[in-house]
């Protein structure tokens, strides 16, 4: 297999993928746009060192990123060269494993996505499978046993050099706050290989659940099993716990695991609430969970901080980037009404920024007159003692800095964008 990994065509595909993904530099500070010039001089020697098994991966740079609950998640950032090689290996490994993965696995797979995951979950719930076994794997990426993962790869890939190379990456130390830490288990979250490796290991769980005839879905290390009674769910949960412990050597987080009803269940940022529509008793619909709304509002608030030195166009561009990604993520959920309310709040934030940018009273007066306010009224408002946020919510700006005028400057309502993605929403 190593010959296929190191074929020029495969290496070039890997190069294009790594450059397209961009990403931060590793411990050597090499940036993605420097990879081309490095490969011009060192590609042949790098390939030779792999074939001779003298290649030594560099340490991984550990980066802590904040999670929504106030905690942090440790990401591992390999060097650009190691990312290139890992991508090359991942492309060939995927050819070997992808066709054998179960259809209930949706994470990091071609033609599979988050929306299919939550949609399938909703189908199970509305089919009457409303006692849900929700199991949280405790620090999954930190707990993976190397020997189990390598054995699964070896069963399909009888290539000692490929196995040697993967093992080298798994054992590479991680640099955290200037100190190197050895790794004897786990795999760095953030490398091109880690999504595929996680699917290879957890495919064993998929096959076990499938053989039992259970309804389940899995997205990376997020999985849930659906039953018709609480008793059945409890039995499934206990059996699955034993399989994870004894066969895969993976611990679960008992505090975050349990049997849920749809209203208490969350999946990939989505919640489930009763529809309350006539003739649909016992059926549920998707919503965005509260913490997801809080995260969106927090990001929009940061983009509309009046003291940030952005032009209005720059501010709008950043806002569009934030909300479009969020709305795309939750486009299957019922979010239209809340988006309309959030739109109103965001427009007032933008008016506040404009009012602050006008700064001096005389400039405020002239701008209000240009927007159609009578001279006496413009003078009074330009000298008001009201705070900027109060002015932004007042009729004087609401009737002058209108939605139409904001739209001419590039503003788009989030609810309107959602309607484009979901035309059936009225």
Outline the low-pLDDT stretches. none
The largest β sheet comes out as: 4 strands, mixed
- Tell me the overall shape: globular
β-strand amount: 5-15%
N to C succession of SSEs: HHHEEHHEHHHEEHEEHEEEEHHHHHHHHH
Helix content: 40-55%
* Average residue-wise pLDDT: 93
Which class do the helix and strand fractions yield? alpha+beta
Strands in their spatial order, largest beta sheet: 2-1-4-5
User: How many runs of DSSP E, i.e. beta strands?
Assistant: 11
Terminal CA distance reads 54 Å
Number of helices: 19
| Overall radius of gyration | 27 Å
Please provide a written account of the structure:
The chain has 426 residues and is of the alpha+beta class. It is 53% helix and 12% strand. Strands 2-1-4-5 form a four-stranded mixed beta sheet, with no helix packed on it. It has a four-stranded antiparallel beta sheet with strand order 6-7-3-8, with helices on both faces. Strand 1 and strand 2 form a beta hairpin. Helix 7 packs antiparallel against helix 8, helix 11 packs antiparallel against helix 12 and helix 14 packs antiparallel against helix 15. The longest helix has 23 residues. The termini are far apart.
